[in-house]
TrEMBL record:
This is Uncharacterized protein. PANTHER family: PROTEIN, PUTATIVE, EXPRESSED-RELATED, SUBTILISIN INHIBITOR 1. Belongs to the protease inhibitor I13 (potato type I serine protease inhibitor) family. One of its GO terms (molecular function) is serine-type endopeptidase inhibitor activity. InterPro entries: Prot_inh_pot1 (IPR000864), Prot_inh_pot1_sf (IPR036354). Gene3D superfamilies: Trypsin Inhibitor V, subunit A. Residues 1-41 are annotated as: Disordered. It holds the Pfam family potato_inhibit. The keyword Ubl conjugation does not apply. Keywords: Protease inhibitor, Serine protease inhibitor. One of its GO terms (biological process) is response to wounding.
Length: 98
């Protein structure tokens, strides 16, 4: 134990929380229904297949297909999912919420 100015400091270990932490940013504390935030399984599929799958799992999604060389804004939107595709319309990056 460290002494500071003649006083002993007692650092007790922290107690674990009663409930688990959220597994993703949209999950409510205490909820057991995490919301999916990314779709890595869609890399290599066409943009149409990717849009269909994302809409099945997140009906409120605002899906944007981003062709090669296009610029996008850096703002975060919890309903937006961007799908980056190559020249042959195949998904090249994991679609994520943002």
């Amino acid at each position: 134990m460290a002494e500071k100015d003649g006083q002993r400091s007692t650092n007790r270990p922290l107690e674990p929380p009663n409930e688990g932490l959220p597994r993703c940013y949209n999950q409510l504390v205490g909820s057991n229904n995490p919301k999916k935030t990314s779709w890595p399984e869609l890399v290599g599929t066409t943009s149409e297949e990717a849009k269909k799958k994302i809409k099945e799992e997140m009906t409120e999604a605002d899906i944007q297909v981003i062709p090669p060389g296009y610029f996008v804004t850096a703002d975060f939107r919890s309903q937006r999912v961007r799908i980056y595709v190559d020249q042959s319309d195949k998904v090249i990056r994991t679609p994520i919420i943002g």
